[in-house]
Amino acid sequence: MSSTTSADPDPIPSWTVVDPDLLLRSEVDGREFGAHKFLLVYAFQGFDDMLSGTPLLGAGGAQEQKDGLPVVPVPESSIVLEKILQLIYPFEAPNLRLIPRDVLVGICVALDKYCVKTFPRPVVDGLLRWATVEAELTYIRACRFRLPEVAVAALKASLRSPKLFIKVPPTELILSAQQYHAFVTYQIECREQATAVISDLAWMRKQQPLPPGFNRGVQSGDAGGDVQAI
C-alpha cells in the first residue's frame, strides 16, 4: 500500500550554501541551516543587534559549536526558517501565493520579530491573495505588519460582504481604535456613495448608449425625452 503526502507547492532542493559562517537551528524540529552573518545583518535589524560585536549568541553558557560553526537556536519551524532564508538570499524567490495560510503568517511574524528592513515582495503578494478570501482578517494582519498596500486591498474586498469582524476569532482581534475607525469609516462612506448613485438616476441620461434596463420615453412637448427604468 502506498501513501501520499502533501508536497511543498514551491519545491526547492534542500537548503545548502557555500562556506556558511553560522548555523541556524529550528527549536521546533532541530533542522539546521547554514547561513552567512553579513546577509542576516543586512536584511534584519534584529540579527544585526543579536550578532554584531558579541561572540556569544544566546543567554549564558558557552557558545555551542558544530563542525566549527556557531549554532544559533531560533524558535521558528524549519519550513518558516527555510522560506525566510530563500527570501533574503540572491536565489529565485519562493512562490508564497500557494503556501498554507498558517505558514505565510508564521513567515510574517518572523520577519516582523527580527525587524526585517523591507518586507519581501513575495510575502506581500501572498497576503494580497488572502485579502480576497479573508478580507477582515487580512486587514488586521496588514495593520499589524504595517503593509498599507495589503490593507487597502483588504478594505476593498470587504465591501463584497460587509460584516465587519464578526467571523474573526477573538484571539485575532488586535486592532487599534484608529485602525478600527478607518475600517468602519471606509465601509460607511462607500455605502453612502453607492446609495447616492442609485437614488438619483439623472446622470444616466448622459450615457450613450443607455445602460441595460433603461429606455428613453419621449413625452409630449419634450423632444429630449426622459430616461425611465424598465
Can you walk through the features of this model?
With about 230 residues, the protein is α+β, with helices and mostly antiparallel strands. About 40% of the residues lie in helices and about 10% in strands. The protein has helices at about 35-45, 45-50, 80-90, 100-115, 120-130, 135-145, 150-160, 175-200; strands at about 20-25, 30-35, 65, 70-75, 215, 225-230. Strands 2-1-4-3 form a four-stranded mixed beta sheet. The protein starts with about 20 loop residues before the first strand and ends with a strand. Residues about 1-15 and about 220-225 have low confidence and may be disordered.
Topology:
Blueprint (H helix, E strand, L loop, with lengths): L21 E5 L5 E4 L1 H7 L1 H7 L13 E2 L2 E6 L3 H11 L12 H13 L7 H11 L3 H10 L3 H11 L18 H23 L14 E4 L8 E4 L1
Parallel strand pairs: 1-4
Antiparallel strand pairs: 1-2, 3-4, 5-6
Helix pairs in contact: 1-2, 3-4, 4-5, 5-6, 5-7, 6-7
